[in-house]
Design a protein that fits this description.
The protein has about 350 residues and is α/β, with parallel strands linked by helices. Helix content is about 50%, strand content about 10%.
């Protein structure tokens, strides 16, 4: 049992609720964002809103992102969340130059570590790193796992428009496989090269653009051969798998057809169909998708042991959604796996 003090609270429902894609941002990182002059329409759309809007939503998100104490714990209690797995919010370090990014990662990890140490029964941390320099990133990952006790690594989408399927990033994956920690591939706004049609329709953020960009990023990593090289490496993606489970049949068919015909000579020949990697190397959280049909579909397609609960706090903080998922008409053992035991296994909670 992960959280001994929560046994009584969980007895009535039969499981703990562990939320696995929950965000924070130190005040210092938000100040860096305010000062950053970046030719990136996605970053400017996202953080121009959250840092500049007087709306209740923007103000609430900014306040809650910075809180790793009283308000966050009160929100968890009010919505019935027993434990959060917390990561530096997107785009994290990945909009800065390499030196600035590396320093920000260290500071953010230290701040999160202090909160985890203060509330070990309520919080678990993911390691922030700066992928710009993979050797430096590996050193921070090793520090985060071995010294700070963090249980995963956060990769906040592309880095200044570059995806992480390129082999220069593979030392990061080699280190994560060796340390036996998963990589959480979190959304970022689509890069400058693809964002304009999304912006024109107000679809660049979490409403659609995030999912498109992250699904593409995950597919690029799969199709680059990363998992053939590192077969024990595990990734986690949110938002009901960024639609990839729903595309699985067509991905297998069309990617296989492309490989057989050698339509793209630069495409590596994968050892398995894409569906194999989705069900052997990828975990899925439902973050932001409190909807039984999508959750149940992912369980059936990817595997009930590979689908985890997440709230997406504080961006989607809705206590009613927790109760809605409690009422899912799925087998009780599957519900406990979804809310509790899958997360305990993936993040090695309680160890």
């Amino acid at each position: 049992m992960l959280i001994k003090d929560s046994i009584d609270r969980s007895n009535a429902r039969g499981y703990l609720r562990i939320a696995t894609e929950e965000a924070f941002a130190p005040a210092s990182v938000l100040e860096h964002y305010r000062k950053l002059k970046l030719d990136d329409p996605g970053f400017n759309s996202l953080w121009g809103f959250y840092l500049g809007s007087p709306s209740e939503r923007a103000q609430s998100v900014i306040r809650r992102l910075q809180d790793l104490g009283g308000e966050r714990l009160a929100d968890m209690d009010a919505s019935g969340i027993d434990h959060q797995v917390i990561a530096l919010t997107s785009p994290g370090t990945q909009v800065f130059d390499a030196a600035t990014a590396a320093a920000i990662a260290i500071d953010a990890n230290d701040e999160l570590s202090a909160a985890v140490n203060a509330h070990p029964d309520r919080y678990t941390g993911m390691v922030a790193m700066a992928p710009h320099n993979p050797d430096s990133a590996v050193r921070e990952i090793e520090r985060g796992v071995k010294q700070l006790g963090f249980k995963a690594v956060i990769l906040n989408g592309h880095t200044l428009g570059e995806y992480h399927d390129a082999q220069r990033y593979w030392p990061i994956y080699e280190a994560c496989q060796a340390l036996d920690v998963p990589v959480y591939l979190h959304p970022n706004a689509p890069p400058k090269a693809m964002i304009q049609p999304f912006l024109e329709s107000g679809l660049d953020g979490a409403v659609y653009g995030f999912g498109v960009d992250t699904g593409l990023h995950m597919l690029r990593i799969i199709c680059s051969g990363v998992f053939d090289r590192f077969p024990k490496l595990q990734f986690i993606i949110g938002h009901a798998g960024e639609a990839l489970p729903f595309w699985q049949y067509r991905l297998d068919y069309m990617y296989g057809a492309g490989q057989r015909s050698r339509r793209y000579p630069h495409m590596p020949l994968l050892e398995h169909p894409i569906s194999h990697y989705l069900s052997h190397n990828v975990y899925i959280t439902n973050s932001g998708v409190a909807w039984q049909p999508a959750i149940e579909f992912c369980q059936k397609v990817i595997g009930v042991e590979r689908v985890l609960y997440a709230m997406d706090y504080p961006y989607q903080f809705q206590a009613d959604e927790v109760r809605t998922l409690d009422e899912m008409t799925i087998p009780a053992e599957h519900k406990k796996m979804f809310f509790q035991t899958n997360a305990e296994r993936v993040f090695k909670l309680g160890r």
